[in-house]
Amino acid sequence: MTGQIHSLLARSLLAPRSVAFVGVSAKGGAGNKMLNSALRSGFEGKIWPVNANASEIAGVPCVPSLNALPAVPDCIVISVPAEGVLALVKEAASIGVRAALVVSEGFADAGTPEGRERQERLQAIARASGMAIAGPNCMGIATLAHRFAATMADIPAKLDAGGISLVSQSGGLLNAVAELSANRGIGMNYLISIGNQAVLDLADYIDFLADDPKTSVIACIMEGAKDGRRFRAAVERASRVKPLVILKLGQSTAGQAATFAHTGTLAGRHEAYEALFRANGVAAASSLDELVETAALLATAPLPAGDRVCLLTVSGGATSLIGDLGERAGVTFGRIDEETSRRVGEALGVLRDFGNPLDTVGMPRLRQEGAIEGVVGALLDTAEIDVIGLVLGMRLEGAENHERLVGRMAEIARTASKPLLALSFISNSLTAHWRGYAREKGLPLVEDIELGLRAIRHLTDYAAFRHNMSTRREPPQTRPAPGNVSAAVALSEAESKRIVGRAGLPITREYLAATPKEAKVLAEKIGGRVALKIQSRDIPHKSDVGGVHLGATVDDTEMMSQKILTNAKTACPKAAIDGILVQEMVGEGAEFIIGMTYDEQFGPLVVVGGGGVMVEVFKDASVGLAPLTRQQATEMVARLKISVQLDGFRGAPPLDREALIDCLVAFSNFVASTDGQFAAIDLNPVFVRTQGRGVKIADALIITSSLWEEDNEQTEPHYAVS
User: Fold this and answer.
1) H or E element: which one contains 532?
2) Cα 225 to the chain's mean position, in Å?
3) Which of 74, 359, 490, 529 could form a disulfide with 12 if both were Cys (CB 3.0 to 4.6 A apart)?
């Protein structure tokens, strides 16, 4: 985003000093609601309703037209029918207005050619004038810190200003977040409804909020990105300075034309968003409540040094529940070592071994003078714990026991070297007595045991991302979009192997034979048993037509080559046959797949998973956005169920995990550097052999895009795998 747009967002649109409202009427309607929201917000700037047929509305004097305004407003709010919007925006631009908020419907949202054309004309006006335009078809904006609102959303009067800013594609869900936050006393900064994103899109707002000093957490409710590359860049930049919590609505399939490739069934748009969020420490919320609880925790808790959590409670049964739900949420419970256990017992006056979650053996023991200080002090001193939480069934109207314990936790938190928090078992328990406690006392509070545990996991994940930022590469530059994927060509295995082999990836030793007799000569050259495979661009899945024979000896190579040639011609009589690939046999190892499918929004999606013929049955795969860091590749492999084979399964020797990771990183560099040339790539199977023996790519399928050129061969040395 340019500095000019940043300035327009900050001064003219989100925190204006003067606003003109066009489309207001004393009879009511959207314009009237927008005007009244500004009046209720306590806005101290100039407000001008524009109406030629009224002297005043809601007690505010009207002006008959934009040209009659006593001064040029920072922002104009437009609530007129769609056919009147463009003329108003042009007029506003002509008098020097720098920002507009268009509430009106009837643009691209209408789904008609007329609506799409109207939106394109609005974009053209914005480009020509340099105007920052929010919407159209949006519910408006509220800036609590600036005491300004121009919105149809129902902003609760009790909603306080704070550090969480929300950008939402859904006006109705924005309403719900505002209500939830107000009930919990969670402070909000900006509430932004973005509508059609004709000019300013989600990436623009994220980019702006990354630099906004009054925003500590960026929360988003999104259906999809207008420009995946820009959205990715904005997320990658923002996450390096402050946490993001995103509720992504809806899922979609990959929509790839490259139907021959397995990778298209393993990675789609939903997996692309997941990969982007995971790689950048973004908290991916699954509900509005999780969005709010996670944002509240991230806004108040310091980042821990690690992910090891200790949760203490006064109920033995509760420890079991916490343990079960914590495991489901992915929370890591740290070890309670012998010395820490001794000190905890000493503080509570009981001799026993303590586990984690930590049962404090009842409320009376924890309430003793100095008990909670002793327990928490022991946990603060051990290197095995990074986050400490007190879990209670906190009551809506408060309770004396809870008040004392939580208050003492708040006192300890003032000087603690690790994050401390309190978690209530019960939903909606922090909306009365405890409302706003976290902001007032500085002790993070979360409610609902499941949501709270997920929020804690999001906190530790983001902390890990921030700690590891130095190992992560800068966001990649935006690259050209692919050509027409419908013009794609599926290359033969030999052609595909030549491309990835020259990129430095470890392919099997192999030769292409024109005849069965030549295949025998080449088999003698390779030595030992060989694999024989029919080669044709028209037969991408060779085994389906009997076009593969494994383990041929030199003596039977000619006969088996003739057999697979006959099978292929019988099954696919119109196929253009290139010949027979004679390939060394890989004698041992686990089968993996490494692949790429091209997403028109995000570019190359890299896939690693369990390979072989059952790849689409088990769909054990991890997805990442190219290029991958080594750490990201390592995490992708670790998430696979099949990864247990790498460590030596049932007495088998360990396999070469590091070589697989090397290959995955090199492949991701290759597909990033050839961005747009290929629609999909399958390397399947990739045999991961005994530790120290590396990996071998036994088969490959490349599906090109129309940008690929037949003679384009990548040879850059940084792809190479040793």
Assistant:
1) strand 530-535
2) 11
3) 74
The pLDDT > 70 percentage for the chain reads: 91
Cα dist from 425 to 355, 362, 372, 576, 705, whole Å: 20, 16, 19, 67, 53
Q: Can you say how many angstroms the Cα of residue 422 is from the centroid of all Cα atoms in its chain?
A: 28
User: From CA 543, how far away is CA 512, in angstroms rounded?
Assistant: 17
The count of other CB atoms within 10 Å of the CB of residue 214 is 16
The residue behind tokens 């969480």 is 164
Q: Identify any residues that bridge with 46 across adjacent strands, giving them in sequence order.
A: 18
Question: CA–CA separation, 624 vs 622, rounded Å?
Answer: 7
- pLDDT, one tens digit per residue, over 555-579 is 999 999 999 999 999 999 999 999 9
The 8-class DSSP code of residue 690 comes to: B
The token pair at 278 is: 């995971």
Q: Are 455 and 294 in contact (CB under 8 A)?
A: yes
Tally the C-alpha atoms within 13 A of residue 191's C-alpha that lie toward its C-beta: 34
Backbone CA torsion sign across 442, 448, 451, 454:
positive
Asked which of 19-23, 191-195, 234-238, 476-480 is least confident by mean pLDDT, the reply is 476-480
- Placement of tokens 């060509």 in the chain: 489
Q: pTM, whole model, 2 decimals?
A: 0.91
ω into 81 cis (within 30 of 0): no
Using alpha carbons, list the distances in angstroms from residue 456 to 161, 330, 450, 453, 459: 24, 10, 10, 5, 5
Residue 77 exposure: Cα atoms within 13 Å on the Cβ side: 30
**Rounded-to-integer distance, Cα 503 and Cα 491, Å:** 16
Measure the CA–CA gap between 453 and 488, rounded to whole angstroms.
47
Q: pLDDT-derived band of residue 422, with 50, 70 and 90 as boundaries?
A: very high
The three-state secondary structure class of 372 is: helix
The pair of three-digit structure tokens given for residue 386, joined into one six-digit string: 């990074």
